[in-house]
Amino acid sequence: MTIDNYERFSGDADMKQQRSLFASRRSLMKWGALGFGGLMIAALPKAVSAQSGGSTLTFAADDEGILNFALLLEELEAAFYAAVVDSGQISDSTELDYMQVLGAQEAAHVTFLRSVLGDQVLFETTDLSFNSSGLNALLSDRSTILNTAVALEDVGVHAYNGAGPSLTNPTYLLAAGSIVSVEARHAGGVRALLGKPTTEPDSDRLVSDDDLVASLNPFKGPAYDELYSPRQIVDIVGSLGILNNPINGALVA
């Protein structure tokens, strides 16, 4: 996919956000441990595949660091869905349409967060370097794609909720709150495609009860979402082996 096509994809799909959708993981870590299959470098958005190395992404433990970290997650999701659409592995038209809509919304989140951050943006999309074999392993078949989508969306929800209590800038908090509920709907929608419960069972969580940060999780039970720390999110993303950029800084220490 070329940059032009990527941008066109985002624009077309923006229009599709208005459509009425029919649509109605154990884990990323497990898939990361399985090893990665054949290359499909042509499936990657050029904007992210053009990089062969990866500059270090450093996130401070402040509002700007948190929102830039959220931006990174949105970039990963947007790139994933763009690659899904290009992969040819989703043959059902309804499911493909849903992947396009989700990709458009994640791309819109990228644009939105970059707008909110303004001159506080720490990196550009072209600064991101994807491990093509890692990403393409997640595109190997429909089941892996949809389970990865569920995992990414669920991780997004846990990440936004986990960072929320640390945000002090009301504009940033509003921006994050405007996105997290959409991420949750995404997760439920893809779960429906897989015939799974629309809410995340404990068995699907990537962080066990014993490893949850107690101060972030005073409420526990099926009616609540668990909150993950930025460090836990970085560990999950790292287990995939899809991003070459090292991640550091006080936020994820």
Word description of this protein:
With 253 residues, this protein is an all-alpha fold. Helices cover 55% and strands 2% of the residues. The protein has helices at residues 3-16, 28-34, 46-49, 63-87, 93-117, 132-137, 142-163, 170-193, 230-240; strands at residues 57-58, 247-248. Strands 1-2 form a two-stranded parallel sheet. Helix 1 crosses helix 5 and helix 4 (63-87) packs antiparallel against helix 5 (93-117). The termini are far apart.
H/E element order:
HHHEHHHHHHE
Structural class call reads: mainly alpha
The profile of the biggest β sheet is: 2 strands, parallel
Q: What sort of overall outline do the alpha carbons produce when their principal axes are compared?
A: globular
Strand order of the largest sheet: 1-2
Kindly state the mean pLDDT as a whole number?
A: 81
| Percentage of β-strand residues | under 5%
**Helical run tally:** 9
Uncertain runs with pLDDT below 50, 5 residues or more?
1-51
Proportion of helical residues: 40-55%
Radius of gyration: 17 Å
- Strands, total number: 2
Distance between the termini: 35 Å
List keywords for this structure.
single chain; 253 residues; mainly alpha; two-stranded parallel ribbon; 9 helices; disordered N terminus; Ferritin-like_SF; Ferritin-like domain-containing protein
Summarize the structure.
It holds the Pfam family Ferritin_2. This protein is mainly alpha-helical and 253 residues long.
